[in-house]
Design a protein that fits this description.
With 149 residues, this protein is an alpha/beta fold. Helix content is 37%, strand content 15%. The protein has four helices and five strands. The strands form two sheets. Strands 2-3-4 form a three-stranded parallel β-sheet, covered by helices on one side. Strands 1-5 form a two-stranded antiparallel ribbon. Helix 1 packs antiparallel against helix 3.
Length: 149
């Protein structure tokens, strides 16, 4: 449990530092992409999503994960620190876009003393370091509690 608390505190500190360094308003490039995001979320997309067969809930920040998704777009020094800490606890998936590639990312991680054991690379479009804005939504199926009284 102490390990999870340590990772939570580390990520909170890092995110706090990022927040202090970055303007929270949309950049002109992000603003231009908004119509596509909105149409996808409003059902205009051709992608079909099958809803879960049972009730679900969003997992809490402190709950155990099967993997941590990191969008490799900016802040490489801080992301390397996150990968170093997180890979000791769970699988880390680094989502990257060109011109990056697994070889250059592996070299960059290694230059900071981070190996790629427990790290997976995924080539996909990345327009922001904030993977939670476009990445998977982490859910748990709700279990029914039976009262045998």
């Amino acid at each position: 449990m102490k390990k999870y608390l340590l990772i939570f505190l580390l990520l909170t500190t890092i995110i706090g530092n990022l927040s202090a360094q970055e303007d929270h308003f949309l950049s002109p490039a992000e603003r231009a992409l908004m119509p596509g995001y909105i149409s996808t979320r409003s059902g205009e997309s051709t992608a079909a999503v099958t809803p879960p067969s049972s009730p679900v809930r969003t997992i809490a920040e402190w709950e155990e994960l099967q993997a941590l998704v990191v969008g490799w777009k900016s802040y490489p020094t801080i992301l390397r620190q996150i990968v170093a800490a997180a890979k000791a606890e769970t699988r880390v998936i680094i989502v990257y876009a060109t011109p990056d590639n697994p070889t250059s990312l592996t070299s960059y991680l290694a230059s900071g003393g981070v190996d790629t054991i427990n790290v997976t690379f995924l080539a996909a479009p990345v327009n922001s370091v904030w993977a939670r804005d476009y990445g998977p939504e982490c859910l748990h199926k709700r279990r029914r509690l039976l009262d045998h009284h």
